[in-house]
Amino acid sequence: QVQLVESGGGLVQAGGSLRLSCAASGIIFSLTAMAWYRQAPGKQRELVAGITFGGSTNYADSVKGRFTVSRDNAKNTVYLQMNSLKPEDTAVYYCNKKSPPMAYWGKGTLVTVSS
Asked: What's 29's DSSP letter?
């Protein structure tokens, strides 16, 4: 049974940092490209950052230079280090397989950036 558990969100002031974690189970994590997505209020879910099983990464233009995705295959965990946060980064953040994502989604973790 697939399970994705996101954590690490919270309230932070603009310019601050957060580190999100996502623990995965029920998939062959070490062979799976993973990604972080986010959904802001009233908007569609969007891909924020992806990482292949080999460690290659890609980012949405809006977060390049500020966010860093990484993974620990021994812990079946993917991370998202978010620096220089902006109010427009406010959203619920989810992890999932990189395109296409699975139909299953975890509960996500809420990130709120105050101005």
From this structure: G
